[in-house]
């Protein structure tokens, strides 16, 4: 007879590849595993509804009583992000994190004003799949459609902080055929990152890293050995890049 213990351990073992995967876009299992690893054991976790809640129930160890707050029962979206504010007010000594989907995070925008006004320091981890993903999945399974569940316009999911840099540069008048968004793979650890590329010169673009996560100043791509663009795109062109030497998009 299989025990609950066997099943749980079987699941964890079977899930390990996803939880450590370097796939791009990042897998939700990896987000949960990384968040858990980064947090103290007594951190307060608030979930919303969607992959975050389901995933936490399934594969996010809770170590101490009273450290998980999740909307059971009717599973109301819009709970997790503001609940974290309340948790932090109650326990300012604890780290507080909300795990929330992009759909759920849009339910209660006023929480941003409250957090700012009251200076409440919480972390919202937004699991962004450009969709009411769990509902899209159910709709697909039952009716073969994802009607009303995907956040996009003309096929563009309008996502990413790099999009701000991209649009700003276009607004400032940089030529449209010189500005591209790119998914870059960093060779030494296999992680992916999104940046804006400015092809001032056709063969060696400037890298504009809006988050500052990867570079501290503007560099040319040639100064960043081991950064391999995987995809480069703007509204008119889309390139899958196999070799750096093949990038000459500005010269088209
Ligand atoms: C107030 C409310 N409306 C609708 C639902 C039904 N519902 C459950 S999950 C979900 C989608 C959540 O989307 P998101 O927050 O992006 O998470 P994801 O499913 O993409 O992981 C919806 C619409 C709900 N639970 N609560
Ligand atoms: Mg979503």
Entry keywords:
binds thiamine diphosphate, binds magnesium ion, six-stranded antiparallel sheet, 8 helices, C8orf32 fold, alpha/beta, 252 residues, Rossmann fold
How is this structure best described in words?
The chain is built from eight helices and ten strands. With 252 residues, the chain is of the alpha/beta class. Helix 2 (28-38) packs across helix 3. It starts with a helix and ends in a 12-residue tail after the last strand. The chain has a six-stranded antiparallel sheet, with helices on one face. A four-stranded parallel sheet has the order 2-1-3-4, sandwiched between helices. It has two domains: 2-134, Rossmann fold; 153-246, C8orf32 fold (Roll), CATH 3.10.620.30. The mean pLDDT is 89. Helices cover 32% and strands 19% of the residues. Strand 1, helix 3 (51-59) and strand 2 (68-69) form a beta-alpha-beta unit. Residues 48-51, 75-78, 101-104, 127, 129, 131-135 line the site of thiamine diphosphate (TPP).
């Amino acid at each position: 007879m299989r025990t609950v213990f066997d099943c749980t351990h079987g699941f964890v073992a079977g899930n390990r590849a996803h939880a450590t995967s370097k796939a791009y876009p990042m897998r939700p299992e990896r987000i949960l595993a990384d968040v858990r690893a980064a947090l103290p054991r007594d951190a307060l976790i608030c979930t919303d509804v969607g992959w975050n809640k389901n995933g936490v129930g399934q594969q996010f160890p809770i170590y101490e009583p009273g450290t998980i707050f999740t909307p059971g029962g009717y599973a109301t979206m819009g709970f997790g992000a503001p609940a974290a504010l309340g948790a932090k007010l109650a326990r300012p000594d604890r780290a507080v994190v909300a795990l929330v989907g992009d759909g759920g995070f849009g339910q209660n925008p006023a929480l941003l004003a409250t957090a700012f006004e009251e200076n409440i320091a919480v972390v919202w981890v937004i699991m962004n799949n450009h969709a009411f993903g769990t509902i899209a999945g159910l709709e697909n399974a039952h009716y073969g459609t994802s009607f009303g569940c995907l956040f996009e316009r003309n096929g563009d999911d309008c996502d990413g902080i790099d999009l701000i840099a991209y649009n700003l540069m276009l607004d400032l008048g940089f030529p449209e055929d010189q500005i591209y968004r790119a998914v870059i793979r960093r060779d030494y650890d296999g992680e992916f990152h999104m940046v804006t590329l400015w092809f001032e010169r056709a063969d060696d673009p400037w890298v504009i890293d809006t988050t500052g996560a990867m570079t501290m100043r503007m560099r040319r791509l040639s100064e960043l050995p081991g950064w391999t663009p995987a995809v480069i795109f703007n509204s008119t062109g889309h390139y899958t890049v196999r070799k750096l030497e093949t990038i000459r998009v500005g010269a088209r």
